[in-house]
Amino acid sequence: xxxxxxxxxxxxxxxxxxxxxxxxxxxxxxxxxxxxxxxxxxxxxxxxxxxxxxxxxxxxxxxxxxxxxxxxxxxxxxxxxxxxxxxxxxxxxxxxxxxxxxxxxxxxxxxxxxxxxxxxxxxxxxxxxxxxxxxxxxxxxxxxxxxxxxxxxxxxxxxxxxxxxxxxxxxxxxxxxxxxxxxxxxxxxxxxxxxxxxxxxxxxxxxxxxxxxxxxxxxxxxxxxxxxxxxxxxxxxxxxxxxxxxxxxxxxxxxxxxxxxxxxxxxxxxxxxxxxxxxxxxxxxxxxxxxxxxxxxxxxxxxxxxxxxxxxxxxxxxxxxxxxxxxxxxxxxxxxxxxxxxxxxxxxxxxxxxxxxxxxxxxxxxxxxxxxxxxxxxxxxxxxxxxxxxxxxxxxxxxxxxxxxxxxxxxxxxxxxxxxxxxxxxxxxxxxxxxxxxxxxxxxxxxxxxxxxxxxxxxxx
Length: 461
Description:
The chain is an alpha+beta fold and about 450 residues long. The protein folds into 2 domains: about 25-355, DD-peptidase/beta-lactamase superfamily (Beta-lactamase, 3-Layer(aba) Sandwich), CATH 3.40.710.10; about 375-460, Lipocalin, CATH 2.40.128. About 25% of the residues lie in helices and about 25% in strands. The chain has a 9-stranded antiparallel beta sheet with strand order 16-15-14-13-21-20-19-18-17, covered by helices on one side. A hairpin with an 8-residue loop joins β19 (about 430-435) and β20 (about 445-450). α2 crosses α5, α2 (about 85-95) packs across α10 and α5 packs across α6.
């Protein structure tokens, strides 16, 4: 799941000239990884590239964690929301086989006991779920993160809890109307497709995608060989954390994989399709619904339009890992980056795909604002839980600990806040700021999340 930032924002500054036709040499690639690790944005990274001639290269840098084998092509990482592309590819495969219909209500294929909501008689389709415009929220509101172990936040969310939420939820708008990134929606899609295939999600993905591609190091359930190759995950502060489990929402982020396998998957998505599975992959690529002026979503894949061409990508993160994969179908090139700290330096992958997308500058005294003084009583007044408008299940918990404010978004790592002014705070681990507003005129207190050029309001509960 993409959980490294405080909200799922899909925007890049895209300018510049056409891209080079080949990636930098291994030394330059390794230097990029080293810089991100030395800046404190990563613990260990494995980078893979596919050149236009089909050749592949893999470089690694950093620490695998205590007790783990050195980083390399066969190191195992959680890939988080990159799983969503596998889920959407499974849908595309079933569409081409005629096993499901793009127009039929998803309810027609749902397992017994699952009741999907509708809006004014309009049903959610499987395609709505894959396009992230079903009307379902980012997360279900009965996923009470205050009562579960935050180290593994989805582990306690059972299939029965999922069914209970769906049966009682009222859609706020028509399906197909608005893009809203939804881990819930992709999890539901995975469950429905697995039921249609007559299996569980992991078995369906293995049978339809992993086995045909001979991807033997990709799974949800780790066998002895994959477990021995699993690197240790770390939170944003670099501390070791537990792995994540998603028993009810596996299709949203449950897969683990190696770089060798991920490049195999990427290669199957590049070039002229030769098999039924590859034709399904191309169907998943097709842009279908706008996200912003420069981005569209297909079945899982997000397409960015840049001066250099079209880049298809998806990223993901769990509590201790991060991943991103990107391809340029026209130039038959691709990149995968896997890391063992929550989130991943996306800028490396996107810069390699288009050098006009800049690498993130390293932190410096000039770039990091001096911390301002904020009175203790004022800090205490900001503490509370804030619900993001339009995404009520996505909350920002603000706490005061040892004289410093911290913020923790739903399912994410806790970050310290640093005062720019007594009411505006910045984060050092994430490029985001928060502005707090006190309650006034019978209206509750709220905050504004400033990230990636977008301002989002969250109201204190």
